[in-house]
Amino acid sequence: MANNFHDDLETRSADEREASLLAALPEQIHLAQRRAPAYGRILGGIDAMAVTTWESLAALPVTRKSDLTDLQGREPPFGGFSAVAPGELARIFASPGPIFDPEARRTDYWRFARALFATGFRAGDVLHNCFSYHFTPAGSMFESGAHALGCAVFPAGTGNTELQVQAIAGVRPAGYAGTPDYLKVILEKADEQGVDLSFLRLGHVTGGAFMPDVKRFYRDRGLEVFQSYGTADLGLVAYETAARDGLVLDEHVIVEIVRPGTGDPVAEGEVGEIVVTVLNRDYPLVRFATGDLSAFMPGTSPCGRTNRRIRGWLGRADQTTKVKGMFVHAGQVAEVLKRHPECRRGRLVVDRAEGADTMTLKVEAPSDADAGALAASLAAVTKLKGSVEIVAPGSLPNDGKMIDDLRKYDG
Fold first, then answer.
1. In whole angstroms, how far apart are CA 311 and each of 2, 246, 294, 348, 402?
2. Alpha carbon distance 196, 168 (integer Å)
3. Taking the chain, what is the end-to-end CA distance rounded to the nearest angstrom?
4. What's the Cα-to-Cα distance from 252 to each of 281, 341, 376, rounded to whole Å?
5. What is the greatest pairwise CA distance in the chain?
6. For the CA atoms of 27, 33, 37, 39, what is the dihedral angle to 10 degrees?
């Protein structure tokens, strides 16, 4: 291909990119304070012009996706987070929750053109779009991204597999966009019907785990299928490239990985919750906690794009559980650890013994750490008694899990 990059932003030096993003941050926060009523309250009293470093950003409050349903119910439709009046938008969507999501009147509002370009789509291609076109924004995300590249789109939507086969055979698109498994369903239906769809060469998938067996299925058929990570609130966050080595961050998001239940950044390589500040003037989400787990990867992609990479979706950060009738959440475990700086990583193991719930806090700490003081902190924070086990540094899994509920609820 004559041009392997969507634009020059993808090959900036790390220093140039960081300087650009941090320079844009104060004005973005100031805009959110002025035009989004919720941030006028959440960020009230904060000097936006002083938020120019990663440390000052990390000091700001986190807005949690899990809270949006309640917040939007109090202040419909967007909870006060939109900087644009509902009637001035292009579309309004509802994703599960329900959570209402705005789409402004801008080309490639969701920024998925970059991900489709990395997949291999180019002007003049046809995209068979199997994402939903009603209620949720996924169909619009990929259609608007394809249009920005100069591609035509067949708006297939979901379901009707036999009609999907007929449409693909008739239109002969360059590739597919949809959930990871559904293209496999379509291709197997085509095989069953004796319809040749071997001309399909590209696919872009998201909205679910891209499992190894499905990847092999596509690879064995000569299909180049790539994945991305995004949300209905933020749009594109990161995307796969031909290097097949992690997901490269979009150029218009500022991503932090934090300890689940907190806003505290973790060390590079450690699994934590994805928190995103998006440079979107219409829906200016600041430190938006997605509830999804990932981790930063070291170095840059062999594909030549210089932005940071994440490992992809590694599970959910919401680990709230009930112990003896009381809720315990990851933020409480993090608070216990924060009170004891000698502790590096911890995990609360919940189980049953002799007909009662039990809690054991496993903590990576020096062997002479005060287990009694940790147990006292655990009781003070959770209002529940539990034991403490000191384990060797590096012995707990690096999976972002802070609560491990081992109780069995079936027979």
1. 28, 5, 6, 24, 19
2. 10
3. 58
4. 11, 34, 44
5. 71
6. 100
Half-sphere exposure of 141 (CA within 13 A, CB side): 32
Read out DSSP for 333-384? Answer: HHHHHHT-TT--EEEEEEEEETTEEEEEEEEE--TT--HHHHHHHHHHHHSS
pLDDT digits (tens, 9 = 90+) for 14-26: 999 999 999 999 9
d(C-alpha 402, C-alpha 349), whole Å: 8
What is the token pair recorded at 142?
Answer: 């990929």
Of residues 409 and 248, the one with the higher pLDDT is 248
Q: Give Rg (Cα) of the chain.
A: 23
| Tens digit of each residue's pLDDT (9 = 90 or more) over 198-256 | 999 999 999 888 888 899 999 999 999 999 999 999 999 999 999 999 999 999 999 99
Residue 158 to residue 154: CA distance in whole angstroms: 12
Q: What does the alpha-carbon distance between residue 52 and residue 25 come to, in Å, rounded to a whole number?
A: 7
Please report, as a single letter, which amino acid is at residue 12.
Answer: R
DSSP class of residue 326 equals E
The whole-model pTM stands at 0.86
**How many C-alpha atoms does 229 have within 13 Å on its Cβ side?**
27
